[in-house]
Specification:
- There is one protein chain.
- By secondary structure, the chain is an alpha/beta fold.
- It has a single domain (about 15-150, about 155-175), classed as Alpha/beta knot (3-Layer(aba) Sandwich), CATH 3.40.1280.10.
- The chain has helices at about 5-10, 15-20, 35-45, 65-70, 75, 85-95, 135-140, 160-175, and strands at about 25-30, 50-55, 80-85, 100-105, 110, 125, 145.
- Helix 3 packs parallel to helix 4 (about 65-70) and helix 3 (about 35-45) packs parallel to helix 8.
Length: about 180
């Protein structure tokens, strides 16, 4: 097998990406402190055609060298906004008709393998701080919670890894509904 070239992949540039249809999904980062995690989530959001990324609280905003190091330019293709608090961002999303789901381990959460995004519905997923997760006040403000099932000794994944798994689930569903 031969690796595909950039021509084979038929990638669009940032300007074309901004004009193309996106998944009805917004990613919300609640006090994510690592700029490399932020950059990685931008890159994954670009790969899976996410509508927008909302950066909340202490989450760094572009342009930053550490964000760019992992985003590789996706911070320029994916739309983003900054909100002073995650609660403000959730209220903004609710006002725009989004169903907002925290990605968190809580009593009553829906395990990702049983979750199926509904067609023609706008979603937002809230991903939390690397140590504390999604703030309880944000969990309380959300419409529900989803979690990634895990079987090892650790109780969590890196936030950028979690974002990749969650975004793939939505993207897979989005492709089925095209």
């Amino acid at each position: 097998m031969k690796k595909k070239s950039m021509l084979d992949l038929q990638r669009v540039d940032a300007e074309e990406f901004r004009k193309m249809p996106k998944m009805p999904l917004t990613v919300v980062l609640d006090d994510v402190r690592s700029e490399m995690n932020v950059g990685s989530i931008f890159r994954t959001s670009d790969a899976f055609c996410v509508q927008e990324v909302l950066l909340c609280g202490i989450t760094s905003t572009p342009p930053k060298p550490e964000i760019h190091k992992t985003a590789l330019g996706a911070e320029d293709s994916v739309e983003w906004q900054h909100f002073s608090s995650v609660i403000e961002a959730i209220a903004h999303l609710h006002n725009q008709g989004y169903t907002v789901l925290a990605v968190e381990q809580v009593h009553g959460s829906v395990s990702l393998e049983t979750f199926t995004p509904e067609a023609n519905k706008k979603y937002a997923v809230v991903l939390g701080n690397e140590v504390k997760g999604v703030a309880q006040t944000a969990v309380d403000a959300c419409d529900g919670c989803i979690e990634v099932p895990q079987g090892g000794t650790k109780h969590s994944l890196n936030v950028a890894c979690t974002a990749s798994i969650i975004l793939w689930k939505f993207y897979e569903s989005f492709l089925c509904h095209k």
